[in-house]
Amino acid sequence: MRRRWTIFAPCALLLALGACSVRLVDEVGKGSGPGPDAPDAGEACAACGDEGACVDLRTDEHHCGACGRACDADERCGEGECVPASDCGVTCGDDECVDLETDPVHCGMCESPCGPGETCRSGLCTDGSGVMCDGRGSACDDGACHDHEHAQHHCGACGASCDDAWVCDGGECVPPVSGQLRIAHDPYAGGRVEVFFGASWGTVCLLDSMRAPAIAQVVCEELERSWTGSLGGASGLDLPARPPAVSGLRCTGDEARLADCPRDDAVDPDCRRETELWITCR
Asked: How far apart are CA 71 and CA 81, in angstroms?
């Protein structure tokens, strides 16, 4: 097959300045390999095509491993190589091929592991008791699903309780630091948002209920979870009364941490149970 050097029009002026790359192209128009200055296949972004659009050579089916190297209709691009599409349905992490229906590390969604002793069935974690949990939940002997990374009474494992003054963080009971938040007692089941200030835990008091969804999104994001859209807690949950730690939050929902949200300086000392923020994260 004959081959030719192809210089795209926008590159003509820049070629002499060394600001544009060229590549070897087959006569049929399919890239046969990178040119001398072509981006490496391991790079996340490369300028390809007449418009110089940014593409990922590791996954782009039209520019797989090199600009212009297209995969066939029954192939996908994985790590810069064209492979049969039938080999994989979903990829997670570093282009790892997984089955979300049965993979205990990616159960139902990427990076959603099941707990110890659990299996993944139909995209839900189960311990064999018939209780199946979605998202980050794990089934325990009480017949409910719990988030072992943040649940106060199931921290790291079913039945492992943290002292009320401490917090379950990453599956371990640890002393809190100022500004740290938690959902008492469990983000999965839903509970009250509490913030640690000074030497004690306090509540988030809502002065404007219209801001609750944006605040809930930020809280769940800080816990590396997703807000379910639910405002409220587990039925029958009895928590001790606590003073408000913060009120007047004016979050937009784009903040990474609750501490980044604008807020009024004053704290409402008369925060009632019905104005406390209760949410569910998974």
From this structure: 9
Chain position carrying tokens 């990616």: 106
Per-residue pLDDT tens over the stretch 77-86: 777 888 776 6
pLDDT of 191-230, one tens digit each? 899 999 888 999 998 878 888 999 999 999 999 988 888 8
Residue 135 vs residue 3, higher pLDDT: 135
Q: How far is CA 35 from CA 43, 70, 162, in A?
A: 15, 16, 59
Burial of 228 from C-beta contacts in 10 A (0-12 / 13-18 / 19+) = middle
Residue 221: its H or E element: helix 212-222
Region for 153 from its dihedrals, namely left if φ exceeds 0, alpha if ψ lies in -120 to 50, beta otherwise: alpha
Decide: helix, strand or coil at residue 205. Answer: strand
**How far is it, in rounded angstroms, from Cα 252 to Cα 131?**
36
In this prediction, residues 65-83 reach a mean pLDDT of 82
d(CA 196, CA 202): 6
Residue 36: the pLDDT is 38
Interacting residues of 63 by C-beta distance below 8 A, sequence separation 6+:
31, 46, 48, 49, 55, 57, 69, 70
Is pLDDT of 158 > 60? yes
Closest by alpha carbon to 231, among 216, 221, 218?
216
**Backbone conformation region of residue 110, classed left if phi is above 0, alpha if psi is from -120 to 50, else beta:** beta
SS3 content of the chain, % helix, strand, coil (to 5): 10, 30, 60
